[in-house]
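Note to self: keep these together.
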Amino acid sequence: MKQLNHRKIPIAVPSLGDEEWHAIREPLLSGWLTQGPKVREFEKAFAQRHKVDYALAVTSCPSGFHLALAALEVGPGDEVIVPAFTWVATANVVLYCDATPVFCDVDCETFNIKVEDIASKITERTKAIILVHLFGLCVDVEAVRAVIPKHVKIIEDAACAAGASYKNNPAGSFGDIAAFSFHPRKSITTGEGGMVTTNNPDLARLSEIMRNHGAEIPEEIRHNSAKPYLLPDFKMLGFNYRMTDLQAAVGLVQLKKLDSFIQERQGWAEYYKDKLKDIEWLKPQAIPTYVTQHAWQAFVCYVDPEKAPMPRNRIMDLLQQNGIATRPGTHAVHMLSFYKDKYSLQSEDFPGARDCDHNTMAIPLHNKMTKEDFDYVIERLYAIR
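Structure:
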């Protein structure tokens, strides 16, 4: 395959502009750069958009998970069920709490947790389950609730799912607690950063205290009080997981664009599916009927190894040579050296996750792409024989 031109199409590009640039002017001029009024405004707007009572901005999605697990009092001796095909942070946060991640296989069509395998992973030590809405596709939460005991808490890994919905309910609103990501590969970004959401006032209060070193009174409230020189009491171990007002200012602008971003991505995802339907070895992520809105953080396909003209990695090589960036969907955590060695795991222990690790491929989908870009990707995929 010869490279036809010098076109370069990255896998993802954040959609930022003058509005975000001007938004940071206010915190810069006010001098309030760390967590403050812009963070509070961003939290309120995010909570309203995702129909939750509480939203807490944090430094990253993993720090949000850490707060969630800590607020749920997950600790030594506890087990947390985690899909085996996900970004490594989903499992790492369980170890941050000295608990044990228990891996569960995934479905090779939706790439989400395999509900029928969950029951076999539950023990008397199971404290919670993390449901990953992978690439912006919500898990069938009602089906999960039907197979787990009532005391097992549901944590939504909504890292990719801002704006996604399940049976008309926004992601982040139907578990006990959730965490979102604003990494630049996500639909909206603050550079780094994340958001914790919950409808539980106790979990919200604990998370708020722990993200601010364990202080009983938030910094903004103390600084604006009559006696800002009086330091708060610290009754528990906490962390510094506070978002800055600079990030929140950008996040507020991005959040206003979220629905239009998703609508545009939805249109191009449908375009991909229509134009690529004759490539029998390339299967886009399946979308069950319970999904009201896929957030389309990425367009991920399964490369059928029985039908593809060559292995997935070779296909990715050829596309890279032609200026098209791709990525594996994500990785099988049980196949990563740290987890494989720590828990004596084998690749075949979770065959669905193993196959997704070997055969999923994300192709470019972002709000900076043109029709010519999409057509070029399609053309190059058809040229692979």
